[in-house]
Amino acid sequence: MAFEGFHRHMHYRVAVGIATTGRRPILHSVLPHLLHQSQPVDEIVICAAADDDVDPAALGALSGRTRVVFSERGLCRQRNRILECVGEADILLFLDDDFLVAPSYVEETVRIFREYPDVVMSTGTVDADGILGPGIPLEDGLRIIRTRSDAPPRGGEQPVYNGYGCNMAVRMSTVRGYGLRFDENLPLYGWLEDVDFSRQLARHGRIVRSQRLRGVHLGTKTGRTSGIRLGYSQIANPVYLMRKKTMSPRHAAPQIMRNLVANTVKIFRPEPWVDRRGRLSGNMRALADLVRGRLAPQNVTVLD
Predict the structure, then answer these.
(1) Cα Rg of the chain, angstroms
(2) How confident is the model over 113-161, as pLDDT tens digits?
(3) Alpha carbon distance 126, 12 (integer Å)
(4) Are 106 and 39 a contacting pair, CB within 8 Å?
(5) Is 96 helix (H, G, I), strand (E, B) or coil?
(6) Across the chain, where does the E strand assignment appear?
(7) Upper half-sphere CA count for residue 263 (Cβ side, 13 Å)
């Protein structure tokens, strides 16, 4: 009981980590909205791959609590660099550079980690996800946030298999205690790196999704990996994670089949924002490598 009381009254230092590459306009459009949190974040760490990914002069009121660091390009490498830089944080909230959080998001995250010492990761409910379509304009995303924020909080925390990489918070004492890192064998865009990291954490506690953690994923299309590379990763990465045992066959196999079927069926009438031909080509290359015993996530780095 004394242990629980300690957790309920301690101050939780919260850091936000954002990995970004080639998306400076959307990054600088979204960042200012972190100022509207009901509980301010203690620190923001932006990990970029190039000097021109971030304009420090554009950080404005956030400059005093923001650090810009650099690493080689690759979502896992950049997120690992962020992990190295938040030595004083109790909670690290990973956000995509195009994710808008509701004003109570940080406060509700702290509440979850304070009330449930066995929770090692939390992830939110995405009110609109532009990754599933052509993307959501910033003003539309803000309108959705305002509309949903006016509604009374509902629901609680539910167990989930993994966090959603665009918005997931981790308990840093667990990450440090077990030396957990994102797998840099998943290069470039990463693809399922959030599942892998989630399942590493799941060995040490609970992962939950909360309907009180709300946000909008704009799904900005600039700066993303090529269709061929993504298509290859859609096959190679889940196979790799099955072999690694951080993704179960019952989760990996449907994911592979869903992407393969979607790319095959939609190649005749592709969405304007999706390179279905490239993704299917990448799928086929990965399947050929699987048959030849050469399949590996790192192969995407040499694909055109």
Answers:
(1) 19
(2) 999 999 999 999 999 999 989 999 999 999 999 998 766 666 789 999 9
(3) 24
(4) yes
(5) coil
(6) 14-20, 43-48, 66-70, 91-95, 99-101, 119-129, 157-159, 167-171, 206-217
(7) 23
